[in-house]
Every structure is written in C-alpha cells, then in structure tokens.
Amino acid sequence: MKVPISWLKDFVDLDGVSIEHLAHTLTMAGLEVEEIRYIGLPIPSGQQLSKLSGLAWDREKIVVADIREVGPHPDADRLVLCRLYDGEKEHSVLTGAPNLFEYKGQGELKPPIKVAYAKEGAEIYDGHQAGSHKTTLKRTKIRGVESYSMVCSEKELGISEEHEGVLFLETDAAAGTPLADVLGDAVFDIAITPNIARNANIYGVAREASALLGRPLKPMPLEVQADGPKIEGAARIEISEPELNPRFVLGMIRDIEIKPSPEWVRRRLTLAGMRPINNVVDATNYAMLELGEPLHAFDYDVLVQRAKGKPPVISTRRAKKKETLTTLDGVERQLDDFTVLVCDSAGSLSLGGVMGGLESEVTASTRNVLLEGAAWNFINIRKTLNAQRLASEAGYRFSRGVHPAMAERGVNRGLELMRQWASGSVAQGLVDEYPLPPQPSVVEIGPGDALRWLGVELSTEQLSDILGRLGFEVKAKGDALTVTTPDHRLDIGEGVIGKADLMEEVARIYGYENIPATRLGDDLPPQRGNRTLEIEERIRDLLARLGLQEVMTYRLTSPEQETRRLPVGTPPDDKPYTQLSNPISQERTVLRKSLLASVLEIVERNANIRERLGFFEIGPVFHASEAGPLPDELQRLVLALRGPRQPGHWQGGDVGALDFYDVKGVVTALLSGLGVDGLAFEPAQHPAFHPGKSARVLAGEQQLGVFGELHPQVQAQYDLGGHPVQAAALNLDAIYSLVLARFDSRGVPAYPPVLEDMAFVVDETVAAGQIEALIRQTGGKMLSDLQLFDVYRGEQIGAGKKSLAYQLTYQDAERTLTDEDVSKMRHRIVKRLEQELGAKLRA
Amino acid sequence: MLAELDNIHQEALAAAKQVADQAALDEWRSRYLGRNALLTQSVKQLGSLSAEERPAAGQKINQVKQALEAAYEERKAALQADQLQRSLETERLDVTLPGRKLPLGRLHPISQTLRRINVIFAEMGFQVYRSRDVETDEYNFLLLNFPPNHPAREMQDSFYVEGGSADNPLLLRTHTSAGQIHAMREFAAEAPDNPPPVRIVLPGMCYRYEQVSARSEVQFTQVEGLAVGADITFGDLKGTLTDFARRFFDADVRTRFRASHFPFTEPSAEMDVECFVCGGGGCSVCKHSGWLEILGSGMVHPNVLRNGGYDPERYTGFAFGMGPERLTMLRYRIEDIRNFWRNDLRFLEQFS
Ligand SMILES: [Zn+2]
User: Fold this and answer.
1) Number of domains in chain A
2) Whole-prediction pTM value?
3) Helix residue spans in A75-160 (DSSP H)
4) Are residues B263 and B319 in the same domain?
5) Are A468 and A503 in contact (CB under 8 A)?
6) How far is the CA of B269 from the centre of ligand 1 (A)?
7) Most B CBs within 10 Å: which of A384, A514, A550, as the mutation test of the B interface?
8) Do A338 and A406 reside in the same domain of the chain?
C-alpha cells in the first residue's frame, strides 16, 4: 500500500520526524516499509531498512517559475517559446507541451502560469524514454534556438508517468521558490500483512504512527455539510443474508457537475497508485484510501429509470444458477451460488464488495449520485475473488475484513468530498440497513499477562496508555483492565486468544527492542533423543570416511526420468506414483519412487567433471500406502562409484576400474561399522543391475539391499562415461532395526597367534562363500581370523578348477597353541572340505 | 717375537687408516686377523718358545688381537657414518612434486549446516523431532491457525498431491511447522492432564510452488523450533535466538527483532543479525540495510497450543523457523541457491 507522507500529515504532526526515522519505526512495529520513493526531497546515503528510490530536486536548479507569455517559435509549429520568470530574471524557454498551446499569442498572462522550472545542469528524468532514466540538462540548440532549461512534466520530475503536457502548479509560492518546498514528498510502500488489514488506509497508518511516536492523532474527517433535501423516500435497502452482508448504507448528493478533480487531489491519488478519473470517482477512491472503506457510486437517475420512475429498491442476494453480470472491466462473469449481488428491481447492478456493473456507472452526464458503503463477509469476498480471478482495490480491502462501522463513515466522507469537488448538495441523512452489528471484543488483561507472555513488567498505567493510543477503550479496576476493541478493527478475539492478540499490540508499541532478552528457565523436557537420526548421522560419517561425497537431490521428479534406471522393456511395478495435482513443470510431476535414479542423475551431471566419482544420498522414497491416502515415506541409502580405483598419480597407481568388489567393500565396511553382524551375500535379480555382477545383502532372513554393477542397458541410458557404474541401494529402515545400542568388546589376546596358509583346489561352481563358511564352522573358536589372499586359475590345476588361498589365524585365549593343536585342526579342515566340497589341499 | 708382534700391530693400525670401504676393510680383516694372518700363525710358534717366554708372548698376542678387532669395529662404524652422510647428501626428492591423492569424503553443505544447527540447539536442551514430507491440509494449515480461505494462506503456495479429500487435501508440507502439532499431540498423549514441556527442533524438506531461480527453489530445507512450558516468554525467545545467532555466526553479532506476522504465532517477530560482511555499514549482501534477515519467530498462538493438546491458559511457548540454505548462502557468500540440489562436484568439494 502506497502512503504519501504529505497525506499522513493531515492526521498526525510529523514535524521534526525524519522520513527515514518514520519508516524505520513503522517497519520495526510490523508495518514494513519496503520502499521509500522520494519525490524531490533529498535522498539520504548510507544504510536504510527500506529500499530507496526516486529523484531529489536540486533546490537551486529546480524551482517554481511564472510563465508570463507564450509565443510562437520562429520556424516550428509544434514548439512554443515561453517568456518565463524564475525569480531572478526572465528566460526564453522552448517547449512542445500541448497544454501551453492554447495560451499562444495571448500576450501577457495575468495571472502568470505557475510551472516547475529546471535550470541548466538540473538532474531530471528523461521524459522521452520509458521508465526512469536520469538526465542532466545541457545547453543545446533546437531548431536554431538556444535551449538550456526546461518546463517540466510530471514524468520529468518523477511524480508520475504523465508526459502529455507540463505540470501546472496550483500554488501561491513566489517564482524562485525551490520546488521541493512546494511539491516535495515521499511515498512509503508498506507491506500490509493479514493481521494489520485495518491499516490498509492512510488513517490507519497515521494511527500507528501516532501510537508509536506518542503524538496526538487528529480525529477522522467525518463532518459532512448536508443541506440538501432529506434522502428519506429516495431509496430503500433489502438485505436477504445478513451473514454475508451485515450492513448497507446509502447516501445521496444532487446536482453535481462531473469534471476533473483539483490538481492536489489528482496528485495525491497518483502518488497513492490510483489513476484520477473524475471528481466523483476520485472522491470514492480518495475516501477509500483515506479511511479504508470502499465505496460505490451509482447514477441515481439511471436507477430511477430502471425502477420505472419509482424510488429504487436496492437489494443484496446470492446469485442464481447460471446468472451472469458484466462488470466495469467489460467482462461478462459467470457467477457462483455464493457470489453476493447488489440488485435493484430491474436486475443485478454490481458484484457486492468487489466490482460495479457497467450499466449504472457514473458517467460524464451524471447529475445525481447514490453512494453505497457496505460491509461484507470477508471469507465470502475472498472466495469470490478467487473464483472470478479478479483483483480490485475494493476486493483487496473487503477480503481482509473491514468493520461495518466504517460503512457509514466512508459514505459521509465520500459525500463531503463530492460536495467540495463537484459542488452539488448532499441529502440530509442516510439510508442505513444494519441487521448484524458485530459485538466488540472485551478482554480482561493485567500486568500479569504482560509478564507471562512477554516477560516484561508493565504497570496498568503503561498498558492502558499503549492500548489507548491505538484506540482501545480501557477501564481499570485495581490491577485488572477491561479492554474494549474499537470499531475499526475485527482482529481481537475473546478470552485467552484476545489476551494474546492484545499482548501483540502491547509488544509492538512498547517496542520489541525494549523487552529484555532472557535465557529459558523453564523445566527441561524428558530427554528422548532421536535414535534414527543418530544412526543416520553415523552412516553419513562412515561413508564420508570411506571417501564418498554426500549429495542431496530433488524429491520431485517425473516417471520418464525415473524409468531410465531400468532397461527398456522392464515391466512396470504395481506401485503407483504419488502425483502432484498442480505440478509446476514437466520435470517435476511426482514424488520419487527411486533414490537410485536421483543419484544416477548426479553421476551423470558430474561424469565429465571428475574421473573418479563416489556419491551417496540418504533420503526418502514415496510409495503408495495400503493404510491410507498418505504415501509411505521409506528411508533409503544409495551409493554409486565410478572410475579408476585410485586417482591418477605421476608415479602410477591402481588405476583399474572400480568394480563389484569395491562397492561390496563399501557396503561391508558400512554395515560392519554399524555393528550389523551375520551378513550373507547372494546373487541378486534386480533389473537395474548386471545379472551376473550384483548381489543382495541379507542379515539373517532380512534383505538389506542390493548392489553391484549397473545393467549395461541402464548404463547406456545415462551419459555416464566409459567406466561402469557400481551402485548400492540399501533399505535404511531395515538397517536401523539391526543397529544395537551397545556391544561387548573383546580383550586383546595374551598368547601368540599361529598363522597358517592353506590353498584349496575346487570346481569353479563352488562359491568362495561356501568354502569360507565351512572353514569357519570347522575352525570354531580356535580360528580367530580368515583372509582370502589369492584366487588362481591355470594349467597347473586343470580346466574348470580354481584355487583359493587363505591365511588362517589360530588363537586361544587361555594358552599358547602347540604344533599338535594346529596340525589336528588342519587335518579336520582339510578332511571336511574334501568330503563336503570335493576340495583338494594344494601342495 | 714380541718385537715382531709390535710390528704387526703398528703395521695393521696404519693399514686400517687407509681402508676406504667395507670391502677393503673385510680384506684388511682377513689379512691381519684371518686364518693365514701372521698374528694367527704366531700362535703356532708359541710351542717353540721356552716355558718362561711363553706366557708373556701369549698375552701379547691376545692384546694385539683385541686391539686389531677394536680397530676393525671402529673403522667399520666410521665407514658407515661416512656412507650415511654421503647418502643423506645425495638422496634429494623434489618436494614440489604432487603427493598421492586420497579420496576425501564429505557431507553435503546443507547436511553440515543442519548438523550445526541441531548441535547448537541440542546444547540448549532442544531435541530433534522429524515428521513426514507429505501432509494433510489439517496439519500443515488448519491446526496451525490457517482457516480455510484465510488470507495468510496466499503467502504459502502449495503443491497439492492426489488422493486427499475435498475438505482435507494432501499437500507437500510448506513448512516443518506441520510437525509441531504431531510432536505436541504425541507428547501430550503421555500425560493428557499434565503434558510435559516441549523443546524440539524440526528439520526437514519443505516444498513451495515457485519458479526455480537463483533465489528460490521448489524444495528447501527448514528447521523449525518449538519450546512450550509453564513459564516461557517473548524475552526467552529473544534470548534463545540471540544465543543461537552468536553461536552460529559470531560471538559478537548483534540481533534485532522486528514485528511480523505468522498465523501460528502471536506476537510474531523476524530476527535480523547485523551484516557480518560489511559489519553493518551496508553492502550488496545485506541490500544496504546493514542487517540480514535470518529467521521468523513468535509466541505460539493459543489456538495452536490447544490443537496440540496444551491448555493455553497454563502453557506458553515460542516457535521459530529458519532456512539452512539461506544461512549457508550467507555464511559462504553463495550467490545461487540452485547450487545445492545441482550437486556439481566443483561446488560440493569446497565444503569439507
Ligand atoms: Zn552488509
């Protein structure tokens, strides 16, 4: 909302208060001044809370001047030469302003035309360029006539976009007076949050400024000079649903003359962001901007005509099925059953509280005006605005709540302004239907509430003073204050909510900065911890220690992007996606089902940036739930490796491609780091992975995830570079349940271990896991460690065979092992492997 | 014979001095102490000596032998020391050649910031509570004091999800405040007549219907905080959040609280910290205001307490919410928020 300071000064004395201090004070109290636009006044340098814009007028170079005579240009019809007096001397100033042409050849003008005059070297806006571009006046020649100065338009001065003619000043100021002293102003652009909708008007902002600065607030301008015939009998009101339309007020002015409003009115409206139209429409807008009550002016004679010569009956009702209305903007609107219409006997006139209809609008020939001020249910207005996709100044205010008491005030203010600007006579009295006056909230508060909510000791006098400044009626009885809400606001609740509402007002005006900062002294809650987060953080640390980079990706994706993780032709799973009803782009239409797809996209993004890649992500996937409409959010871990095992080095190194056994190594290290025991690995059947180079990892019966080399067809669907990607997808919810809170440590052995190497030749079909399991089973407690250190295939052992070499560590906690112990064990292992797997000990 | 032994002794010592390396030293040793050495041979001649001469000669042989062996060891040590010295002088590496690269793992910068926030609040007694990404309108809005058609809802553009009902649609949470009600209800259920105090932070991913740009994303993390108890004031809110800012940014940072509006708190406040880039003098980071907007906060609205199972006549509380992306961007002067979910290694590698 745009607030010219000059207008604010009608209601609160701001002498000695700088523009910037006022903006700061309002901002800190919740009326955020987003921008200050300077109209000619000096723009401060240095830091400010608000954004600063606008044009400062040099006091010497931009002044009031008198045009004493307008004469022709020697050889240009579209230019005139003005004889202009700037307070010091006369100048001959060239201009093409059309609004000076009518004075051409009239000789000495009496009185002279007061204009804004920019001298050589003055900085103004370029009137010929769109937007605001500063330019400095320089001496030049136009059509043979020397030019060094200018009579300015509103646009050149930064007042508005108007550049059709020069600005005529309605001022008594003498020529030579700095223009800034006559027209200088600043406009605040204030963000009005929903809780301060009552301040979406000049008077509301003035009330806040008065309360915050401790300066008196002038009363609302409500006097109206009504000396015309009484309104009684001229119109009637019928309200069918008071819940939607609690009040409807009509006033009347007769014998007006439609014409432009005075220059200062037009300028104020312009600065406040509204386009001046004519004196009657401007009066409704001016009253709305000033007091916050939107008004609507009807051409009374049109209404009488529609009522076939009888006094019109204005009624409000819900729209009927399939009813339409053509609004002022020329749009024919389909109405809903909740839309409230203002009607007369001949049909509908306007969308109540939102926008007028075309037919009964004020026109240049209007003589008599019926002026509407009403109150509407703000939720219903909001629904109407949303349904009609419509924004209007009236709708903006009514959809945030305007107190019904403002209806009468607005109408009186509007009538008085019309009387002043359009002459005419105001009818005595109003037609006022007020079926549902709201009950004012009455709240009991005391110093205890300020202490409880704010932590600050305030006396009843202080509380009473603060609330009084905002217009609350406060009655004190001992320590208790009875606070009655004034009839310009609807936001104060009852009971404990009312107390909180009032505490907010007290805190705002008292000043947040005056409330001392304290540390929590309240009881600590029970310490619950967060087990899954703790495990998750351990996983992050373990994987980072293993050299992987964590990534965080979009949880919104599209099915097309996700299908790339599977070979073409893979039958779709039966789990439906969690779909957005209102996606913002084609790439993000659903919540992801696969974290693998997310991570592969990151591998792809970095494929050409680094040769060796190692990523992991922890996050949810979203699967439709059988339990209800909300999807299951399942916690997953995906990791992906690609590239040479070691980064390249000038001395060489292990630059072989990371393979299945690298990703298996990471998975094993992670799970053993988490203390998850009893892991088993089996070949996996997962469409995303190479069928011969992937495995599932189990703990007992429970599958924890799959890992391995990406299926070549999947690899080909991403731009991943040459090396095959190794990936793992683990189910964290399953892993969380296996992580133990504690474990028993083992002592360091006191007796020396015995190391022994053994190699077994077996058929290719025998898995290493079988051999290892059998050795471990046979070795029992005595076998403390078992490491595979070589796998050999070759002529020496024959085709279809392989040799696996292990180092066994024997250890006894109680004594030193003898050669005999070791040899006995060796024989048992050899025998068992031979019997069960056909293994031969290799000599 | 004794004179002869003295000669051998002198000659050997002189020869030892000339020895230049281990091979020569070994040769010297076999020549003077070996089987065929004069000294060794002289033992055999002892038998030809008289019984009176024999002990003195034997003793002399032993003396010479020991002396020569000592000379050998001494010379050997000297040669080794020489050799070491020579090798230290010649074995020189180019220390400017690159070291072997080891893969360094890292957490995502947002993970790092989330951790930092969690840790600071943990030390003030706040524990982490997490809840779901897909929410109902009821938990995301209604119970947080956003009635249907309320103007405040327009400040939050939501992604709606298929599958909800007309009066309780599903959506992607627009703030982690949705978890406030879950947490309060869960705790209140433990003792409905006397619910325990609450001190939690709620980190999580949130979503907003907004075009992606350098300044805004469709998904963003948020950390919400909530403290509810018998005696919690706006002063405590100021103190707690100022303590947080000093821990997170700088021990001397100044904070400022500005009135604001959120439907679920009253009074509401924005907290600004003095710009640590310019020290408050004004710069492009703080848009020349000298202050940086850091978080929104306020006293929990009585309706929200009641919806969570806490009687607003007996309990008060404060809540706050902050954006880890914004905090991270300020801390490291990151210009473009899209860097976070793009995951380009050239960005991520900077945050170890
Ligand atoms: Zn700064």
Assistant:
1) 6
2) 0.89
3) 154-157
4) yes
5) no
6) 21
7) A550
8) yes
